């Protein structure tokens, strides 16, 4: 069985600066220092960081069946900021993976912003259901730093207001959001109708499973429709408002999923939630200066979340 998993992280660092780490051996030097619970050591076996370079990764105790493995750099694209490395020897292959390749892409977004996309592509041998089950789970994440206090953002994200806003702010993603039951607390159910062309779209019902007003965390889970109609066993969203200073914060949006056919994992995109974070931030800033460009109208039932 072949499959892949991908993760994206938006950063406020220029792509060229990130590539100085990801595109060289500097990443191998830093990772054991930054993530000692994941990597104990990375040793250069041969090469200078270009195509053909071989490194050995050694893991800390406690990871079942994983002590070390060697990987070879098979692509280093300094123009497009893409690096690929494949496992050539060691425990990762002994576990039952026929192939295991990691791709890092640094994607320019602006002069001082970029996205780190990390992708794992693999093939699992037949007769290893424990690996297949493990690889059915995945997640993608997006972070947006804002110049808004966390408490103000939570007033939008923490209840039903975000559902009222998104069809107006990002109509290219959401056509309509309807309240099925609840008052915005745990147990609330919404029906979300997507714009045409959205992957896994049509419509879905999601239930609020966690509302943490102290730590500004909200979790929802799809209970009907959406990705569940496309082979996914679970599709959940976590929204976190992380305070940085009194006047700034980060909107962290995470999708967690489980799917039988791991090849479908690539259809999961964080783009919709990223668009929401950017649109809500822009809207709130406009509200502050009293010149909202896309503020939703306040009157009719059709334009607010209403009980079905």
Question: What would you note in describing this structure?
Answer:
The longest helix is centred in the last third of the chain and has 19 residues. The chain has seven helices and 14 strands. Helix 6 packs across helix 7. About 2% of the residues have low confidence. It is globular. With 308 residues, the protein is α+β, with helices and mostly antiparallel strands. The strands form two sheets. A seven-stranded antiparallel beta sheet has the order 1-7-6-5-4-3-2. It has a seven-stranded antiparallel beta sheet with strand order 8-14-13-12-11-10-9. The protein has two domains: 134 residues, 2-Layer Sandwich (Alpha-D-Glucose-1,6-Bisphosphate, Chain A, domain 4), CATH 3.30.530; 160 residues, Alpha-D-Glucose-1,6-Bisphosphate, Chain A, domain 4. Strand 9 and strand 10 form a beta hairpin.
How would you describe this structure in keywords?
Alpha-D-Glucose-1,6-Bisphosphate, Chain A, domain 4, 7-stranded antiparallel sheet, alpha+beta, 7 helices, 308 residues, 14 strands
Describe this structure in a few short sentences:
This protein has 308 residues and is of the alpha+beta class. It is 20% helix and 44% strand.
Order of helices and strands: EHHEEEEHEEHEHHEEEEEEH
Strand arrangement in the largest pleated sheet: 1-7-6-5-4-3-2
Q: Give the terminus-to-terminus CA distance.
A: 43 Å
Q: Can you tell me the number of structural domains?
A: 2
**What share of residues is helical?**
10-25%
What order do the helices and strands come in, and which of them pair?
Blueprint: E1 2-11, H1 15-22, H2 26-34, E2 41-46, E3 54-58, E4 68-77, E5 82-90, H3 91-94, E6 97-110, E7 113-124, H4 129-134, E8 137-146, H5 150-157, H6 161-169, E9 174-181, E10 189-194, E11 203-212, E12 217-225, E13 232-245, E14 248-259, H7 271-289
Antiparallel strand pairs: 1-7, 2-3, 3-4, 4-5, 5-6, 6-7, 8-14, 9-10, 10-11, 11-12, 12-13, 13-14
Helix pairs in contact: 6-7
């Amino acid at each position: 069985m072949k499959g892949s998993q991908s993760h994206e992280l938006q950063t406020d660092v220029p792509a060229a600066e990130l590539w100085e780490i990801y595109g060289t051996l500097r990443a191998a030097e830093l990772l054991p220092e930054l993530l000692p619970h994941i990597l104990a050591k990375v040793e250069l076996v041969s090469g200078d960081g270009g195509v053909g370079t071989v490194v050995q990764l050694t893991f800390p105790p406690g990871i079942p069946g994983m002590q070390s493995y060697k990987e070879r750099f098979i692509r280093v694209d300094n123009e497009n900021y893409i690096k690929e490395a494949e496992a050539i020897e060691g425990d990762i292959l002994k576990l039952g993976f026929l192939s295991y390749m990691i791709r890092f892409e640094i994607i320019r977004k602006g002069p001082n912003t970029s996205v780190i996309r990390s992708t794992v592509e693999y093939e699992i041998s037949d007769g290893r259901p424990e690996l297949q089950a493990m690889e059915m789970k995945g997640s993608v994440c997006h972070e947006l730093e804002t110049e808004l206090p966390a408490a103000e953002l939570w007033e939008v994200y923490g209840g039903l207001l975000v559902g009222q806003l998104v069809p107006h702010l990002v109509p290219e993603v959401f056509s309509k959001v309807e309240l099925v039951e609840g008052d915005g607390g745990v147990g609330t159910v919404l029906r979300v109708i997507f714009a045409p062309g959205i992957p896994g779209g049509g419509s879905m019902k999601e239930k609020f499973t966690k509302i943490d007003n102290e730590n500004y965390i909200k979790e929802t889970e799809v209970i009907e429709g959406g990705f569940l109609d496309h082979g996914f066993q679970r599709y959940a969203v976590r929204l976190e408002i992380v305070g940085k200073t009194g006047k700034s914060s980060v909107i962290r949006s995470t999708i967690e999923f489980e799917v039988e056919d791991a090849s479908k994992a690539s259809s999961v995109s964080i783009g919709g939630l990223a668009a929401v974070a950017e649109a809500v931030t822009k809207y709130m800033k406009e509200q502050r200066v009293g010149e909202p460009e896309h503020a939703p109208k306040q009157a009719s039932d059709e334009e607010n979340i209403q009980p079905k």
